[in-house]
Specification:
By secondary structure, the chain is mainly alpha-helical. The chain contains five helices and two strands; from the N terminus they run H-E-H-H-H-E-H. The longest helix has 25 residues.
């Protein structure tokens, strides 16, 4: 159930980002759900590999280089998913930042962290 909720929230995040970031387009919520699935698969495979090999650069840039990698993953996903388009690296970079923030905000609103009981 949590996996479906995360998938739905990721799709919703993409819709919100498409309304906020110029150059970031979705044809509908169905495309957003498919794009969220593809982005998740890309990040779990290629993205994980890229983050591993670029870790020294990430440390030097205090983690900001991961936004570059996330932007590249968004561009790749836009090439694979019909109805999802990212026009240019700048739109992908800004989209990656806004997507991270919106995802974090939605997850905090929908599923606040449970407190550990002693």
């Amino acid at each position: 159930m949590r996996l479906l909720l995360n998938w739905f929230l990721s799709g919703l995040s993409l819709v919100i980002v498409a309304h906020l970031v110029p150059g970031f387009y979705l044809s509908g919520f169905r495309a957003a759900l498919i794009a969220a699935l593809v982005i998740g698969l890309i990040n779990a495979t290629l993205g994980l590999f890229l983050k591993f090999i670029t870790f020294p650069i990430t440390v030097i840039t205090l983690g900001l280089f991961w936004f570059v990698i996330n932007a590249l993953m968004l561009e790749l996903a836009s090439r694979l998913v019909p109805g999802f388009e990212v026009r240019g690296f700048f739109a992908a970079f800004i989209g990656a930042i806004v997507l991270s923030l919106v995802n974090m905000l939605l997850r905090a609103l929908v599923a606040p962290q449970e407190r550990e009981s002693d």
